Task: structure prediction
Amino acid sequence: MMLYLPISRPTPALVSFGIVSAVLGLLVCLLVYFLLLPSPILLLLALLWPAGFVGAFLLDPLWLMKPYGLYNRVALRWVIPAVRSWVLAVTFGVVFAANRPFSQRLRAAGGDGRTTWHPKTIEHILGDSGEGDVAVDETMGGRWLPALIQWSRRTRNWWVIALVPFMVVLRLLDTEEEKRGVSADTYTLY
Amino acid sequence: MLRLILTLIASLLGWILILPLFILVFPLWAFSALTRAVADRLARRDSPWDAIIEYEPEIGWKQKPNLHLRYADKNGDSCSVQTDGEGWPGTHSIEESDVVVFGDSFTFGYGVHAADAYFSQAKSCRIKGVGSPGYNMVQALLWMRRYADRLRGKTVVWFICMENDLAENLKPYMCDSYPAPFLRTRNGTNDWEICADHIEPKTWLERETGISNTILFAYLCTPCAYSDRVYAAARYLIQEARTLCQSQGIHLILFSIPYKMQLEPKGRAQLCEFLRAPEAFDPDYPDKRLSAICAKLGIPFIAGTDHLTAADYKPRDGHWNLVGNRRVAEAIEANLREVPAR
Result:
């Protein structure tokens, strides 16, 4: 569920942005004209909107970069963080809250100044079958979903499956892959 | 089991709370999905680079022969390439050409249609480009050596891309993972040698994240130990080319291709920011050093800065646009007129 457009702004994406904006604008104007408000101004706007896109693009194809950048700024700075915050709030406030009676409480540090850190044991390094150490099967590569299901089956933590839809949504809202910059001297050859 | 049931009920409640938000963001999703889908359709005509490039022993890579296809440049702009039976841009052979240009992506005609590249825009002579994207000067010299017999009596123009050629002469790789021949000094001496032992038909898995060529270029615009080493390596390669050309009766000309940042006040200011001593920055320093090397070796030198401006480059790319390609073709032709007949 990508809510944003390719950040590097490749030309096909820019051209596509212009085409989709022009066509959708035309459709919206026509729908409003025929269904809600039969105003001649809307009809004129319906005709001028795509014509304006085409005309401006022919004059200077790069002008599309500004509305394109604006769209991505709104999507990346406002919409995606807001949606992500809401999904996280619901996940922690509702789904995890329902699990509270079954969960262990974290030991708080005592007032005597003693640390609650403890040395890592060999069990931790090798991975045990308990809840304390979630070891993902490396042979499954980056396929986190089968790895999670395998872990929940192995440890009988079936309730984790209910979290999967929320995790999928959060994964879809992730923008990390787009943060990778393309260096100025990059070619892909063979 | 109780935990699972409770979690499922909570999950259902969670979805009821999330659903209205999805209805609100649906138009955004639909718009971006539609835009991406149309962009994918538009880009599908372009061939991937592995359809264009193949492995070449000792050199690293070159274009495949007899290509006539489209590819997308770094911005996704659709460009076309046509190669001859040896994989070089254009349809006529080296033998049929008056001028043979050696170099990297600029020589290849990267970023424009084949018909708009400099080698297609020359009016008074036939120009052949022998180059591939990412080549350094070592690779150009190796091709000159291979083609020495076929270049006899011709004019050879050597494009030297300031942005990366000089720095990459000393790197065993291009773009972090493509093995490329490079220059190194023999142990304990100041003598240079070409190293190509590591060239293999696959890319390196471990990507070396070295200093970017832009930062290195900033240092090449200042007198310092690094720039001295880089220009010494360039001098060795130019000297080798001169010896080769003299032995075969080839007329050698060096053509420096300015880095786009060199040509813009904003770019020059950005380059200065990379330096510890920005007051030493001189955007003409690389040309001065190459010009001095050429003067000493008796090789004509064309400074690209005399013929090109930032407007001759693509807006979001460091390669020439159609006008830039035309200016380069004109510069080559003008220089040929100045060369006395042999």
